[in-house]
Amino acid sequence: VKFDDKWVSDSDVLAGILEEKYPEPVLKTPPEFASVGSKIFGSFVTFLKSKDPSDGSEQALLNELKALDEHLKAHGPYIAGEKVTAADLSLAPKLYHLKV
């Protein structure tokens, strides 16, 4: 996306710019939910790169996914409750990559 003659491709940066330019609806994630799901993609990459099936990387990924699932059951349907936030926008494409 091009903002003020500058190309921006990072989704987290884009979310910040959109939040600043268009403050409604609020996308800011409440601090207590900001880290929810933040380790999933790193765990996924570690699992993909793993050459040792017994190194625990698969279980670590499954643990992160289970933690997200439990969080959503308790607080959902989105990370911070009833409204989509920047955390959801950041996590959704990563979960899509995981599914593919």
UniProtKB/TrEMBL annotation:
Keyword Cell division: no
GO MF annotation, one: glutathione transferase activity
Short name of any one Pfam family annotated for the protein: GST_C_2
Catalyses which reaction(s): RX + glutathione = an S-substituted glutathione + a halide anion + H(+)
Gene3D superfamilies linked: 1.20.1050.10
Domain of life: Eukaryota
UniProt keyword terms in alphabetical order: Transferase
Enzyme class, first EC level, given as a word: transferase
Name the UniProt record assigns to this protein: glutathione transferase
Species this protein is from: Rosa roxburghii
Lineage of source species: Eukaryota, Viridiplantae, Streptophyta, Embryophyta, Tracheophyta
